[in-house]
Structure formats: structure tokens, C-alpha cells
């Protein structure tokens, strides 16, 4: 921040006679901005000059240069101003006396600190601006400069964007770490970030600080907040390492913005993003995304609007997501030296330079090393000697993945901690069995204290010892508190949430005796197990599971024999299944299967439970052949060992039916599902949730077989029963609501289906979250409802959104993503980009051919859709051949009287007509209309389409009288069923031949 600005209501000529140069430390930029604004509004010309104090320039010379500035020189007195360099108080006393003393009228000063400053600063006669309100601070400022304190000139009273009074916080402030009072340098980076954000167009104000671990990206972002935060009404800091955590923390902004929402964070998140986008109620907002190392996970949730976003990340790929990049390097040498001398005042400049060179200017390492070196009797030369290999390698056991300087420096520091407060090392080692980053040490404090190792019990139960250990780690910058200004002293001192850098985490892990490792890991496992909410189907508890899951790997929970820890693994696996974390869930399940088989044996009861949940996650990811083999083996073994009526056997039998549905073997699946339902009903009664699940599975099989009325009846009954047994917002109840709406739509009852599905989308978004697979399924069905009801604009937008979200959340090859892709391709074929439709359709067909057997109905259906695209681009013969093959394959797979076969036949009749085989086309369309009426009813949309197609084929045969009769009857039924203005009715009246889109169903 430098240079002059033209003030409000003052000409350049007038301003030149009333100039004030403000000299300030970068740390106090907010004060400088506010003071400058107050003076400019009164017609003064203001020049901003950030004070710098290079160590190689005498302080007297620097003050003389400052004295050459224009007009009156206003110094912002603070400890920061006098510490830059660093400079001793003696230097300052001498320089102030020599330069300012003879001509004190050139200088004026205001004090913005309560800390002590050099005694000679009294020559500046500073007035205090802190601990008073904005009006009084302005009065004192004007009085010190000899300016009238009356009302502002009328031209300056015009409202304009002005800096906030620095002593007052932004109206909304949350999550921001405490200011690092040892922050040094980085001035150009801070200024570059400021100018890039201020100069960005609305919606494009995103800057990413990127660089290697340990260079101080987070500290830089925090310093930016404190320097420039007064220019914002909202400052909100979120941990963005994990998508689920980022979503929750951003959603917590909703009540702070005064937004009226429900308690579910999915609803809050949408409200927050919309509020920030609109700039209502606050347009001046700053959001910090800390630790966002995986752009693909959260880029779509980065708010846009009139505010600004700062991201810290090790990943430069943020440049591909509408962000400007600022690389954060290691310190420049002069910054390193200045920082070391402030951190370790006993070191002279040459010693600081030697240390900086030895530690390669890495800020994290400089901070940790200089801190304890200042308290040590060790000289810098002796320390560097240790770095060069003089330490006992039997004691030092650190990772070779780090530079040698880092390895050895850390070994020295750990030895120092052992000698001073050994409990601090115990706490540090406990932390390494959590994931690096934010460590929920509160879980250690909250766990039952019985049977803990003596040294751990003493640490956790003695508040004084606990605080002493944390203070020691903080003193040497090994950890930092995840502190928020809203936290009280008690919470802060207890250290309930610490931040441990990933580099520190790995080093400490390596430097641990095996005996301690076994003892400490057991403590953390038990702490995680004690934190298990034990209800993974309860969406209100999903955030607690999301907080636990990242730590499972580091606590090596899969090798624990503790039943509570094993129960935690199973519940986490179930949470991943219900929340849609299929890839992560399958990885956890696979590792657990391998570990537990070795640890517990093949026949242990835990193995059956694990297998069931693991198979569910695999099936959700589309691995049907694999899950069918696992489930069939389990069903056979359990039937032989326990009998057919055993509940475990029934559970696996239900899973096997789901596998069969995924493989396209619908008749087998229906038979097995019906048998399971009867067995559950006999054993548990009609209203047990497991019986209801079994009935739901029967309905799924019926829907896949085209028996829509029967599926509708069962889905309605299950939905109503689940509302009573499980309540309205249970995930299974919400899923029943989706199924019921799908049945209505497949029966042609579009308006009813759309009404129910619109509410279902809202409910799922609130309860499950807007990125949950079940919510995406609800949105997908709503898009189809819009489309069938003729609302193409809303349908097209929603199809595209659902596909994008499906690819991001579940991956491009997930069965539901392919289902979404089918719909988007069909829509684009008729109402969008035919090239996009073809590319997407070809991708869907190719993936089905890899994932499923060639005789699977989904393969035939996708090929039928592809044929319609070929027809539209003029490849008639190719389309005709492909559609005839699809019709034969679909008929073979599900029978000639299935709606899918009838749909393929409808399209095949059109292609026969198009290639000139009109007699065959008419025969096929007549047969299709007859069979559709028998199966679905005379006024079902598919039957009506077949009747309109038959009329077209009759015209092709020149049987105009019969064609007119068939057409008029079909049009009359269309008008009665869908309405005169429905797009299907209008299209039929215009004699556009109807077509059918294959629509894969969830299995």
C-alpha cells in the first residue's frame, strides 16, 4: 500500500498544500487505511509510506529519508514499527534524538499499541487511538494534526466504500486463527494478493497461495486477513482439507448471515452460497479455504459473487478452476535473518545468517529451531555441527524422505523436548495416531479414563500437566491451537483442537520406540471408539462419522481385537454406504476383510457382518459379478450351517437378490426377494424394518420386470409403513418416496409424479445433503418428470446438473452416473447438441459393454438409444441394423411383453418405415400397440405412442381411412390423458412420429 490518492471534494492544487505522509508498519496497515480515509474525507492529500528497515542501512539514514517526504509526517507508533530490522531500543533512542529532536514539528504520531516502545518515541508526542471508539479516535487524530473536528464537508459526506475502524471487528467473523505476532516479511506477496483481488471482476476474485509444506501459506493467509480484514463485512475461515468438513463449516455461516434455514447443513449450505453470490445481506465478504490440496473435491463449492476468496494449497491445479495463483517460496535470506533475530534475540545477524543457510530458509523449520535455540546454551556453530552429522544416530530415527537438515534438526528438537517436559513428547506422539492437520485431542479428554497407561492417565487427568505439555509444544511451534476469537480461555488453554503439520507428523511417527507405539495407538483407538455415535443411518450424525473416518488409517484400527474398535469400523463402513462414499468404503472394506480374516479367522461372526456391509458398498459401486460370487458363497455356507430361516442367512439372501438385479436376472431376483419377504414376515412381523426392506426389494424387482402397477402398490404401502416405523425423514423413507414417484411416472401419471418428486428433492437435499447419491437420484427423477410433462427448459438444466454432480461425486463409470448420462444424451439428441449426444451415448454404451454381460438389458437399451442418434445424423442403414439387434437382444433378455421390448419395437418400426419396409413396419407397430394395451392399458403413454406410430404406418400403406380412425382415437385419448396442449399431444397432432427412450433403472 503506497502512493497517493485524490481525496473527495478537493482539487489537486488545493491538496498539494495540505499533504500528510503516513508512515506505518505493514502489520498496522488497517490503521493506516482508516486514518488515510478520515483525512481524505476532509480534503487532505494523503501519501502512504510503508516503513521498512533493512538491517544493512543505518537507522539514522532511514529516518532522514523519511523526513524528506511531502507535508507533515504522521507516524503510526506500535511495537511493530520499532521491531522491524530488527533494531534495538538503543538504536532507536539515538536515531530519534538525532533526526526528530531538532525539528519535531515535521512529525506527528498516533499510538495504536499498548506495548512498550523506545523511550525516545516521546519526542513524537503520540496520542492514543486504542481503547476508544471511532468518533473519539478521529477527534484525537485531527487534534494532533491541528485540524478542525467539525462536520465533514458536504461533498465528502457522500456515502462511499470506506475502511472499517480497525478496533471494530467485521460484522461476521469466524474461524480465523490468532494473529502470528512473529510474522515477518512477505510484503510483496500480501500486496500482490490485495491488488489482484481488488482488481478482479465480480465473481473472479479468487487467489490461491500455493507452495510446498512448511513455507507458511496458512500464516500468510491469516496475516492477509488481519491486514485487510477491516475492508470486509464478513470474514470466514474454513478448513478445506476434506469436502465434508468444508461443506459443514461453510454451512455454519448461515445463521451468522441471518439466513432463515432449517438445521440440516445441506439446506444451510445452499442458502449461504446463494447469499454470497447475490451479495445480500453483505457484498464485502472474504472467505479463506485453508489446506485445499484437492481442487477436484471442492472447486464446485467455491462461492462466487462480489466478495473474495483466498485458498491455501500445495496444488497449483487451482489455476484450472478460475483462481489466480501466487506461489509462496521459502523465505528470502533477509526475511529469514529478520525472523530468526525476532524469534531468538540473543543471536547476532551473522549467526542468524548461518542458521538460515543451514536450514535452507524453510519458515516452519526456522520457527521451531530458533525458538528453542534462543533458550539453549548451544551456539549456532555447535548446532550446525549437529546438523552436519554430529548427533547419535541410535537416538535419531527420522524419515529419510525429508532433507537431511530437516531430519537432524527435528531430532535435536525432540531430544530437547524430552529433557524439559517429557509429557509434551507423549502428547505429540499421541497426536500422530490421528490424521495430520487438525487433531481432535478433545476425544482423548472425553474418553473413559479407566485402564489407561499410567503416564497417559496422568497427562489426560492433570489439567496443569496437560496445559504445560501443550504450552511447551506451542513455544517451539510444534503445534498450534485451532483458536477462534469466540473461544473462552478455558477452551483455549485445554487445547481441545490442535494443528499438527504433516511434516512434523511424519517425523514424530518415525521417532518412536515400539513399546510406546503399541501403547499410544491403543489409546487413540479407544478414543475413536468412544466417539462412535453408533447410529450410522442417522443423517444428523454423519458429520461426526466424517470427522472420525480420516483417523482410522493412522490409528491402524483394522488390526485391533477390541470389539468396540471393530464396531466402529463396521459403523463407519455403513456410514460410507449410506452417505455415498462408495470408493472410500470399498477400500476400507477390502482392507478390513484382509486384516480380519488373518486376525479373527474365516468363521468369526464379525467376518459375516463385515462381509455384508462390504458387499453393500461394492454393489453400490456397480461390481455386481463380484458381489454375486461373495453373497452366493455366504448364502450357501450359512444355509448349511444355520438353516434357511437364520436371520444372517436371510440378510445375505436379500443381498444376493440385489446382485441378481444388477446382473439383469430379474426373474431370479424376484423369486428370491419374495421368499425373503415371507421369511422375514414370519420371523419378525409385518412392521419390522427388515421386513419392510424385503418388501421394498420385491417392488424393485417388479419395476425392473415392467410390472409397474404392482410395484406402485407395494411402494406405497412400504412408504406409509416406513413413515410410521422410521419417521418421515429417515433415508429409507425418503427412498420409498422416490420409488413411489418413479412408479407413478412410469405409469404415465406425470403430474402426480412431479408433485411428489419435487417435494422429495427438497427433503433429500435437506436430510441427505445436496451431493448425496440419493439426492441426485431424486433430482434425476424430477428432471424426467419435468421432461415427460413438457417442461423442457427445467428438464434440460437439471439433466446437465445431475450428470455433472454424478460424475464428480460417484465417478464417470458408476451405474447411476451412466443412468444420468443416458438421459442427458437422449435430451441432447432432441433438444440440444447432436454431437454431444452422440459422444455421450457412445461412452455409455462402451462402459456398459465393459461392466455388464453382452446379453444384459441395459446394453441392449443403450444401443437402442444410440440407434436413434444415428437416425438423426442420417446414418439410416446403420441405425436400422443396430436397432433390430437391440430389439432382438432386449426381447431375449426380458421377454417380448416387457415395456423395454415394446419401446425397442416402437423405435424399430420407425426405422423399418424409414428404410422403406412399410409392411413390416406396420405389422410391428400394430403388434406393439396391441401388446402395450394388454400390458400397460389403452391410455398409457407408450401405448398411445404405438397407436400413433401404427397410424403413420397405415398411411405409408395408403390405408388412409383406417389410419385416420386409429389416429383420431389415439389423439382423443392423448388429449384426455395428457391434455390438448401437452407437447406429446401437439407433436402427435403435427404427425411427428413418436420415439421411445430407454431409461435404465436403479437396481
Helical proportion? 55-70%
Q: What share of the residues does DSSP label as strand, in percent?
A: 5-15%
Integer-rounded radius of gyration: 36 Å
Structural class: alpha/beta
- Order of strands side by side in the largest beta sheet? 1-3-2-4-5-6
Q: What best-fitting shape do the alpha-carbon axes yield?
A: globular
Quaternary structure state of the chains depicted? single chain
- Poorly predicted regions are 1-16, 154-160, 390-403, 483-495
Biggest beta-sheet profile: 6 strands, mixed
Gap from first CA to last CA: 61 Å
Average of the residue pLDDT scores: 87
Work out the number of β strands: 15
Helical segment count: 46
How would you describe this protein?
- By secondary structure, this protein is an alpha/beta fold.
- Helices cover 60% and strands 7% of the residues.
- It contains 46 helices and 15 strands.
- The strands form three sheets. Strands 1-3-2-4-5-6 form a six-stranded mixed beta sheet. The chain has a six-stranded parallel beta sheet with strand order 7-9-10-11-8-12, with helices on both faces.
- Helix 2 links the parallel strand 2 and strand 3 (45-50).
- Helix 17 (404-420) packs across helix 18.
- The longest helix is centred in the middle third of the chain and has 19 residues, at 582-600.
- The protein starts with a strand and ends in a 14-residue tail after the last helix.
- 50% of the residues are buried.
- The model is unreliable at 1-16, 154-160, 390-403 and 483-495 (pLDDT under 50).
Amino acid at each position: 500500500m503506497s502512493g497517493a490518492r485524490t481525496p473527495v471534494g478537493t482539487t489537486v492544487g488545493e491538496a498539494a498544500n495540505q499533504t500528510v505522509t503516513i508512515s506505518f508498519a505493514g502489520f498496522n496497515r488497517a490503521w493506516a487505511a482508516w486514518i488515510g480515509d478520515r483525512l481524505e474525507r476532509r480534503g487532505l492529500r494523503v501519501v502512504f509510506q510503508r516503513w521498512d528497515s533493512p538491517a544493512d542501512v543505518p537507522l539514522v539514514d532511514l529516518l532522514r529519508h523519511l523526513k524528506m517526504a511531502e507535508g507533515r509526517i504522521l507516524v503510526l507508533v506500535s511495537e511493530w514499527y520499532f521491531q522491524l530490522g530488527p533494531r534495538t531500543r538503543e538504536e532507536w533512542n539515538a536515531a530519534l534524538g538525532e533526526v526528530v529532536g531538532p525539528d519535531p514539528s515535521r512529525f506527528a504520531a498516533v499510538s495504536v499499541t499498548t506495548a512498550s516502545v523506545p523511550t525516545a518515541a516521546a519526542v513524537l508526542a503520540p496520542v492514543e487511538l486504542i481503547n476508544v471508539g471511532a468518533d473519539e479516535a478521529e477527534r484525537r487524530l485531527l487534534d494532533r494534526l491541528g485540524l478542525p473536528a467539525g462536520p465533514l464537508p458536504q461533498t465528502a459526506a457522500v456515502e462511499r466504500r470506506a475502511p472499517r475502524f480497525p478496533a471494530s471487528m467485521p460484522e461476521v467473523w469466524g474461524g480465523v486463527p490468532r494473529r502470528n505476532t512473529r510474522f515477518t516479511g512477505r510484503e510483496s506477496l500480501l500486496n500482490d494478493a490485495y491488488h489482484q483481488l481488488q482488481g478482479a471482476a465480480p465473481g473472479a476474485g479468487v487467489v490461491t497461495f500455493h507452495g510446498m509444506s512448511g513455507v507458511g501459506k496458512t500464516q500468510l493467509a491469516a496475516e492477509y486477513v488481519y491486514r485487510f480484514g477491516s475492508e470486509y463485512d464478513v470474514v470466514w475461515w474454513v478448513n478445506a482439507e476434506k469436502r465434508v468438513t468444508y461443506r459443514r463449516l461453510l454451512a455454519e455461516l448461515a445463521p451468522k448471515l441471518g439466513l432463515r434455514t432449517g438445521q440440516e447443513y445441506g439446506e444451510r449450505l445452499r442458502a449461504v452460497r446463494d447469499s454470497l453470490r447475490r451479495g445480500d445481506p453483505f457484498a464485502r465478504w472474504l472467505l479463506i479455504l485453508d489446506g485445499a490440496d484437492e481442487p477436484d473435491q471442492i472447486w464446485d463449492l467455491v462461492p462466487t459473487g462480489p466478495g473474495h476468496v483466498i485458498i491455501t494449497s500445495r496444488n497449483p491445479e487451482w489455476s484450472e478452476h478460475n483462481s489466480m495463483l501466487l506461489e509462496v517460496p521459502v523465505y528470502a535470506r533477509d526475511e529469514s535473518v529478520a525472523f530468526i533475530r525476532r524469534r531468538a534475540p540473543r543471536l547476532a545477524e551473522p549467526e542468524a545468517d548461518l542458521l538460515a543457510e543451514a536450514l535452507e530458509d524453510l519458515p516452519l523449520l526456522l520457527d521451531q529451531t530458533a525458538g528453542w535455540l534462543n533458550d539453549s546454551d548451544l551456539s549456532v556453530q555447535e548446532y550446525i555441527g549437529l546438523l552436519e552429522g554430529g548427533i547419535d544416530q541410535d537416538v535419531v530415527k527420522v524419515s529419510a524422505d525429508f532433507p537431511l537438515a530437516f531430519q537432524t534438526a527435528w531430532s535435536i528438537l525432540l531430544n530437547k523436548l524430552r529433557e524439559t517436559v517429557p509429557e509434551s513428547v507423549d502428547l505429540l506422539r499421541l497426536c500422530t495416531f490421528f490424521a495430520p492437520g487438525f487433531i481432535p485431542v478433545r476425544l482423548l479428554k472425553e474418553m473413559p479414563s479407566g485402564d489407561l497407561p499410567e503416564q497417559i492417565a496422568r497427562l489426560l487427568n492433570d489439567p496443569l500437566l496437560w496445559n504445560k505439555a501443550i504450552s511447551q509444544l506451542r513455544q517451539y511451534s510444534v503445534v498450534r491451537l485451532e483458536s477462534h476469537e469466540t473461544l473462552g480461555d478455558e477452551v483455549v488453554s485445554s487445547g481441545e483442537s490442535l494443528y499438527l503439520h504433516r511434516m512434523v507428523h511424519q517425523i514424530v511417527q518415525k521417532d518412536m520406540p515400539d513399546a510406546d507405539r503399541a501403547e499410544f495407538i491403543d489409546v487413540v483407538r479407544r478414543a475413536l471408539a468412544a466417539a462412535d455415535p453408533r447410529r450410522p443411518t442417522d443423517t444428523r450424525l454423519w458429520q461426526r462419522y466424517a470427522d472420525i473416518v480420516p483417523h482410522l488409517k493412522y490409528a491402524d484400527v483394522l488390526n485391533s481385537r477390541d470389539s468396540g474398535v471393530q464396531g466402529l469400523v463396521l459403523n463407519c463402513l455403513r456410514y460410507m454406504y449410506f452417505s455415498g462414499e462408495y470408493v472410500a468404503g470399498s477400500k476400507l472394506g477390502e482392507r478390513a476383510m484382509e486384516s480380519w480374516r488373518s486376525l479373527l479367522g474365516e468363521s468369526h461372526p464379525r467376518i459375516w457382518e463385515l462381509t455384508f456391509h462390504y458387499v453393500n458398498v461394492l454393489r453400490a459401486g456397480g461390481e455386481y459379478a463380484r458381489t454375486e460370487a461373495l453373497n452366493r458363497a455366504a448364502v450357501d455356507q450359512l444355509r448349511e450351517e444355520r438353516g434357511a430361516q437364520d436371520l444372517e442367512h436371510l440378510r445375505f439372501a436379500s443381498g444376493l437378490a440385489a446382485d441378481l438385479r444388477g446382473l439383469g436376472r430379474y426373474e431370479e431376483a424376484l423369486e428370491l426377494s419374495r421368499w425373503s419377504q415371507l421369511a422375514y414376515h414370519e420371523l419378525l412381523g409385518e412392521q419390522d424394518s427388515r421386513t419392510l426392506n424385503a418388501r421394498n426389494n420385491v417392488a424393485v424387482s417388479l419395476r425392473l420386470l415392467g410390472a409397474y402397477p404392482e410395484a406402485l402398490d407395494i411402494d406405497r404401502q412400504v412408504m406409509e409403513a416406513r413413515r410410521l416405523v422410521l419417521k418421515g425423514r429417515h433415508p429409507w423413507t425418503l427412498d420409498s418416496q422416490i420409488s413411489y414417484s418413479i412408479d407413478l411416472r412410469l405409469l404415465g401419471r406425470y403430474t402426480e409424479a412431479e408433485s411428489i418428486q419435487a417435494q422429495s428433492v427438497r427433503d433429500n437435499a435437506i436430510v441427505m445433503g445436496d451431493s448425496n447419491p440419493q439426492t441426485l437420484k431424486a433430482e434425476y427423477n424430477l428432471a424426467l418428470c419435468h421432461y415427460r410433462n413438457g417442461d423442457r427448459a427445467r428438464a434440460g438444466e437439471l439433466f446437465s446438473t445431475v450428470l455433472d454432480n454424478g460424475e464428480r461425486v460417484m465417478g464417470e463409470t458408476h451405474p447411476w452416473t451412466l443412468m444420468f448420462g443416458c438421459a442427458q444424451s437422449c435430451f441432447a439428441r432432441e433438444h440440444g447438441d447432436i454431437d454431444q449426444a452422440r459422444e455421450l451415448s457412445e461412452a455409455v454404451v462402451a462402459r456398459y459393454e465393459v461392466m455388464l454381460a453382452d446379453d444384459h438389458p441395459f446394453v441392449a437399451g443403450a444401443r437402442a438409444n444410440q440407434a436413434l442418434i444415428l437416425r438423426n445424423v442420417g446414418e439410416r442403414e446403420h441405425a436400422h441394423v443396430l436397432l433390430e439387434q437391440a430389439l432382438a437382444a432386449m426381447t431375449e433378455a426380458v421377454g417380448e411383453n416387457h415395456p423395454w421390448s415394446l419401446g425397442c419395437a416402437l423405435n424399430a418400426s420407425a426405422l423399418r418405415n424409414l428404410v422403406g419396409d412399410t409392411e413390416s413396419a406396420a405389422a410391428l407397430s400394430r403388434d406393439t400397440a396391441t401388446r402395450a394395451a394388454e400390458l400397460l392399458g389403452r391410455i398409457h403413454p407408450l401405448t398411445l405412442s404405438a397407436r400413433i406410430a401404427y397410424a403413420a404406418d397405415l398411411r405409408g400403406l395408403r390405408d388412409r381411412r383406417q389410419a385416420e380412425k386409429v389416429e383420431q382415437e389415439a389423439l382423443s385419448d392423448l388429449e384426455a390423458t395428457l391434455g390438448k396442449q401437452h407437447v406429446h399431444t401437439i407433436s402427435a397432432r403435427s404427425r411427428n412420429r413418436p420415439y421411445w427412450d430407454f431409461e435404465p433403472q436403479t437396481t
